[in-house]
């Protein structure tokens, strides 16, 4: 069917990946893998291997496969692999890739090349090649390679030119050790490999992508990329770095005697200065063109020092703020005292204290309530105390004539002692009691429910023993009753 045939046409090329692994001196195992999007319409795959340049007899070898993986052992010559899918309708577009050289490949021997005055390249090798058949390849790249088959045993060979100047040539020798004659390139092994310039010059460009890292007060790490091979114009033997102190317009240089080193640590720099960096490549012919300049500045302080400065600065600011606040508070306080003096408070005046002391001394406390509360009513103890001590009213009597002192006691109590609602006495501001009883001490006490006689009440603790018998004890109810009878 025409419609079905159109659907079977393969329009996509496979996606290829190639890897190489060294398996023996001068030999590597190449693995080819691919994927195909239209694999449901594929009946098989075609793998074609082409040697560049061709060998003594064949150039291409083809393999028809149904799998999507292929292994083959090859020498270290240039090879190109094509992969295409096929079905009844035809072939798909082919995908191609160059076979890489394994980075850890070893060789059977070594090749030594020198340029002669007639622009020829003279080759020698070690050890000697035992076979009387070997192949020599030389060229600048995979698309510009030449081949020469040597069919006799030799220990040297001269390659005739012309050879381009400032171009790097790759030279290889390949053997067929199993048969010592021309055969399939899958049997080929590489004896050795070398590189040479027919004529060298200085690099035509400097390193690119210069970067500065780990900048400190006195050092910096300089990194750069290699000079491309097409711009080297000779075998690179090292790099030369110029660094200029822009503050003093002073330039120094450093030579890096290694092509594998693409970094350098500059030391002995002045802190806080700007430096300009330029780098050039070196060959046997001399120094090449300088790179573009790159400017950087060293640090005034290392990272740790900078942190310490920040911390100390913050502490200093805090201290200044606290001191300023203290000074402002002091000045404000002094200003307030100067412009707004404090008005004296009479409550705290010394005159008031003196008046209180005088009042206390001039108005004796004659009546004081006792701590004991035996009942609902109160009674008083009246004790006569003379200036020389405690005097008795009547030494021979056990009781005192109460009626003789009622009038005086009434006036005294009305004048100097008032009963407050809470049971406390309030001294009046009137003068002292009559002269006859200035030494009399009146004590207000709550009276008992059943008043006792003078003989039943014991001696107060604050009086001497000889005064106990000369004490008159009056209950408050008796006193009121006698007082009413007098009035």
Give the biggest beta sheet.
5 strands, antiparallel
Look at the helices and sheets and give the structural class.
alpha+beta
The share of residues in helices is 10-25%
Mean pLDDT: 76
Could you give the count of β-strands? 29
Morphology: elongated
Amount of beta strand: 35-45%
Number of domains: 4
Distance between the termini: 157 Å
Based on CA atoms alone, the radius of gyration comes out at 64 Å
Task: Specify the number of helices.
Answer: 6
Low-confidence stretches: 1-7, 362-402, 417-476
Record the SSE blueprint.
Blueprint: H1 2-7, E1 15-24, E2 27-35, E3 44-52, E4 60-65, E5 69-74, E6 78-87, E7 90-91, E8 95-98, E9 110-115, E10 121-126, E11 134-141, E12 144-150, E13 156-159, E14 168-175, E15 189-197, E16 208-213, E17 220-225, H2 229-232, E18 238-245, E19 250-256, E20 263-266, E21 274-283, E22 286-287, E23 294-297, H3 303-339, H4 350-362, E24 379-386, E25 389-390, H5 406-416, E26 418-419, E27 425-426, E28 440-445, E29 472-475, H6 476-486
Antiparallel strand pairs: 1-2, 2-5, 3-4, 3-6, 6-7, 6-8, 9-10, 10-13, 11-12, 11-14, 14-15, 16-17, 17-20, 18-19, 18-21, 21-22, 21-23, 24-25, 24-28, 24-29, 26-27
Concise account of the structure shown:
By secondary structure, the chain is an alpha+beta fold. 17% of the residues lie in helices and 36% in strands.
């Amino acid at each position: 069917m025409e419609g079905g045939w159109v659907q079977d046409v393969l329009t996509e090329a496979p996606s290829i990946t190639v890897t190489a692994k060294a398996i023996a001196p001068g030999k590597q195992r190449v693995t080819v893998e691919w994927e195909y999007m239209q694999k449901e319409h594929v009946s098989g795959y075609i793998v074609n291997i082409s040697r560049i340049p061709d060998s003594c007899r064949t150039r291409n070898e083809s393999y028809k496969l149904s799998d999507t993986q292929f292994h083959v052992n090859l020498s270290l010559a240039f090879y190109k692999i094509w992969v295409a899918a096929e079905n009844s309708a035809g072939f798909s577009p082919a995908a191609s890739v160059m076979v890489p050289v394994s980075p850890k490949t070893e060789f059977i021997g070594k090749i030594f090349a020198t340029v002669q005055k007639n622009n020829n390249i003279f080759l020698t090798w070690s050890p000697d090649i035992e076979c009387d058949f070997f192949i020599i390849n030389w060229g600048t790249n995979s698309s510009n390679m030449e081949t020469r088959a040597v069919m006799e045993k030799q220990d040297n060979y001269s390659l005739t030119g012309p050879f381009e100047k400032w171009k790097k040539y790759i030279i290889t020798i390949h053997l067929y050790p199993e048969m010592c004659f021309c055969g399939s390139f899958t049997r080929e092994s590489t004896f050795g490999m070398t590189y040479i310039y027919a004529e060298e010059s200085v690099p035509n460009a400097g390193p690119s992508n210069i970067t500065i890292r780990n900048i400190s007060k006195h050092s910096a790490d300089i990194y750069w990329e290699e000079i491309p091979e097409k711009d080297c114009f000779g075998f690179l033997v090292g790099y030369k770095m110029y660094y200029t102190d822009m503050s003093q317009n002073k330039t120094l240089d450093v030579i890096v005697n290694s092509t594998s080193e693409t970094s350098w640590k500059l030391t002995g720099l002045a802190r806080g200065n700007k430096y300009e960096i330029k780098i050039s490549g070196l060959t046997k012919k001399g120094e090449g063109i300088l790179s573009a300049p790159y400017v950087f500045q060293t640090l005034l302080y290392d990272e740790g020092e900078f942190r310490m400065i920040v911390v100390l600065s913050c502490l200093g600011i805090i201290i200044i703020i606290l001191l300023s606040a203290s000074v402002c508070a002091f000045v404000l306080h002094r200003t307030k005292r100067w412009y707004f003096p404090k008005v004296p408070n009479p409550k705290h005046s010394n005159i008031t204290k003196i008046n209180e002391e005088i009042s206390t001394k001039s108005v004796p406390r004659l009546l004081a309530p006792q701590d004991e509360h035996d009942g609902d009513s109160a009674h008083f103890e009246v004790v006569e105390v003379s200036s020389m001590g405690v005097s008795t009213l009547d030494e021979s009597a056990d009781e005192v004539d109460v009626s003789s002192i009622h009038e005086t006691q009434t006036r005294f109590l009305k004048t100097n002692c008032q009963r407050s609602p809470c049971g406390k006495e309030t001294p009046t501001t009137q003068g002292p009691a009559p002269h006859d009883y200035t030494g009399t001490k009146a004590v207000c006490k709550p009276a008992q429910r059943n008043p006792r006689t003078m003989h039943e009440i014991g001696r107060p603790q604050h009086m001497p023993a000889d005064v106990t018998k000369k004490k008159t004890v009056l209950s408050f109810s008796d006193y009121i009753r006698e007082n009413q009878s007098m009035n």
